[in-house]
Amino acid sequence: MSLAAPAPAAVARAPHVPRAASRSLPWLRSLLGVLVVTVTVLFLASVVTFSLGALSDSNPAAAALGETATQQDIDRLNHEFGLDRPLVVQYLSWVGHALTGDLGRSWFTTIPVTDSIKTALPVDLSIAALALVLALVIGGGAGIGAALSNGGIFDRAVTLVCSILGTLPPFVIGMALIVVFAVKLQVLPAGGYVPLAVDPGEWLRFSILPALALSLDVAASIARQLRTSLVGELRENYAVGAEMRGFGRRRVLFGHVLRNAAGPTLAVIGLAIPLIIGGAVMTEKLFGLPGIAQLALQSAEKGDVPVVLGTLLVTAVIVVAASLVINLLQTALNPVARRGAGTPGGVR
Amino acid sequence: MKTLKALWRIPSARLALLVLAAIAFLAVFGGALAPHDPLQQYTDEVLQGPSSAHWLGTDYVGRDVLSRLMAGTRLSVLGALEAVLIGAVLGVPSGLASAWLGPRLEWITLRISDTLVILPFTVFAIAVAGTLGNGLQQAMIAIGVLMSPIFYRVTRAAAIGLRRTQYVEAAELMGATEWWTLRKHIWSKVLPNVAVTSAQAMGAALLVVASLAFLGLGITPPAPTWGGMLSADLGYLAQQPWAPIFPALLMMATVGSLNLLADSMRDVTGATTAPRRRPRRTNARPEKQSREEQRDVVPA
After folding, report:
1. How far apart are the first and last CA of chain A?
2. Which residues in chain A have Cβ-Cβ distances shorter than 8 Å to B259?
3. Chain A: nearest CA to B174, how far in angstroms?
4. Chain A residue closest in CA terms to B289
5. Which residue of A has its CA nearest to B203?
6. Distance (Å) from the C-alpha of residue A17 to the closest C-alpha of chain B?
7. Is B7 part of any domain?
8. Which DSSP string do the residues of B216-254 spell out, in sequence order?
9. Residue partners of A94: CB distance under 8 A and separation at least 6
10. Higher pLDDT, A151 or A123
């Protein structure tokens, strides 16, 4: 899914921070700005999530009690769930509980949502992390190679493969991998899961295909962006100058250029995080992994609103946290950004 | 019209337009032209390979794959189209407006767009299906809402740049109303950007719709769609490992054409780039040339 996605969540200009602070400590200004943005985004995400639940017409009392329930029973249970209170009160108590790690209980099984998510989440997180590593290795290698052979065969091959990957839904890539590695070669399992904590070797065997399926899409974006920025940076005066001074191509690339090209690439990775998490949902279904998406899908079928909302909220928080990390990395890498966004004379 | 002619002169754009025209034709007439009823189950011909009766073979309950592909085009394309339209209707006006809003309101609209960006399509769509019911409309609205930030950002970027140009400032000084400036000066320049984004978003939406169908969201069986066919094939990979190729090829052709078209439109109209730009295949050479030129100049 190659979306021409907008700039990542938290790269916005820092809002109103006292002037004195901005002059003496420019990094404080950008840090504060990022924090304000992050908190706002989290708040809005919780509002979106909550309003989905509020708009839902599925009634937990009626659902839990079955068809024989009387109106009195339903009212009693509604009161118990707190659904007869005003929406604002419901929202505040929901968020308040969520902040302490309590996302309510399932309407059907009465298992705490947090517990269900806790058992399912490590599956997704470990696979998403592995996918990210794979994407970095594959995409980074392809991007650097393409930039080095700018216009050459390798460059064109990378561009072609990236374009093709961008036209396929992620689960088709996973299907192709299953056909090749599980059906034809029979070297890797087509489904199933062993937790990382139980047996790392087995975990790797079961999760390498899902992670690979998940990573290729992102690897393509990384390769594309890295190639573009590398080619651009290699034309800058400092790179030409370093080359003129007799530094080898490799030294110029890895010592000087890569660092500068990493910024935009990091932005792409930041954007890819929702894709990885969203894609994890797809791979879970494809490879039969017991992850958060299976939980959400099964709950969605039953209309188990707390579980569904809980998964959405947790996913949003994870994506925001990951974007925040990427953002801080970006600031750390780029001296212009470190000095504060929009410094006059900044190159881009 | 002029744009269309200019597009036609680019070979890749011509190919893309032809493919898209064929897809549009299939979307309108595909169901009527299909050689078999897409829902008819030929129970004694389950999981057959291509033959003279069934050109692309049959699926796991013996339905004709070619007919299902042809008839499924409409739902797949219409679904994506609806999502893109919703995204554009939400994103474009708010993007234009944000160029005129005060800094506070603008900041809030930016944060709303940030929030929608971080919600993954699939998880959000599952949540919508779980709370508001599982239907095509709900799914498409969900995707459309999540797509609106793309339109918002692109429109906003173009509009903000234009608003600071001298001729717009001059018009405002001379007393032109905001509405007049918008219609006269801004809209015609924002439109190419919106068109390019729409083509890209359409491709992305097709993939998302397929992904949702794979998860069992949005389109309910037995109605045929490309994504639904792909996910049904998954269960029979051992018997028919080649079966997903047909819907996948059709989807690749459509999405690829949309991407090509977007790139060519950008070249033709000179639309400023979307926030994230994919490198175009065609510029591999010129870049190299210019780099060599630069090298020639510098060491001399």
Report:
1. 27
2. 2, 163, 166-167
3. 31
4. A151
5. A167
6. 14
7. yes
8. T-SSPTTS--HHHHHHHHHTTTTT-TTTTHHHHHHHHHH
9. A50, A104
10. A123
Residue B82 lies in a domain: yes
Give the integer Cα–Cα distance in Å for A188 and A193. 12
Q: For residue A134, give both structure tokens.
A: 């794979």
Q: How far is Cα B280 from Cα B268, in angstroms, rounded to an integer?
A: 13
**Range with the lowest mean pLDDT among A127-136, A289-298, B16-25, B219-228?**
B219-228
Cβ B217 vs Cβ B134: under 8 Å: yes
Report the C-alpha gap between B100 and B256 in whole angstroms.
36
Q: Is the pLDDT of residue B293 over 60?
A: no
- Whole domain around residue B64: which residue ranges? 2-274
Asked if residue B288 is part of any domain, the answer here is no
Task: Give the CATH number of the domain where residue B67 resides.
Answer: 1.10.3720.10
pLDDT single digits (tens) A196-211? 777 777 788 888 888 8
Q: How far is A7 from chain B (nearest CA, A)?
A: 6
**Is any Cβ of chain B less than 8 angstroms from the Cβ of A124?**
no
The residue whose two tokens read 């600071």 is B164
Residue B164 sits at φ, ψ, to 5 deg, of -90, 0
Contacts of B280 (CB under 8 A, 6+ apart): B263, B267
Q: Which residue of A has its CA nearest to B240?
A: A179
Contacts of B117 (CB under 8 A, 6+ apart): A5, A6, A8, A9, A271, A274, B146, B149
* 8 Å CB contact between A324 and A34: yes
Kindly determine whether residue B114 and residue A12, on different chains, have CB atoms separated by under 8 Å: yes
ipTM over 0.90: no
Q: How far is CA B257 from the centre of its chain?
A: 10
Q: Position of tokens 């269309």? A: B4
DSSP annotation of A179 reads I
Examine residue B281 and state whether it is found in any structural domain, yes or no: no
**Which residue on chain A is closest to B193 by alpha carbon?**
A4
Residue B1: pLDDT band with limits 50, 70, 90: low
- Domain total of chain B: 1
Q: What does the pLDDT average to over B251-264?
A: 89
* Listed residue (B37, B180, B164, B159) closest to B97, CA to CA: B159
Of chain A residues 10-39, which have a CB less than 8 A from chain B? 10, 12, 15, 37
The tens digit of pLDDT for each residue in A74-102 reads 777 777 767 777 788 888 888 888 888 88
Count CB neighbours of A161 within 10 A. Answer: 15
Contact B115 A228 (CB under 8 A): no
Contact present, B77 and B206 (Cβ < 8 Å): yes
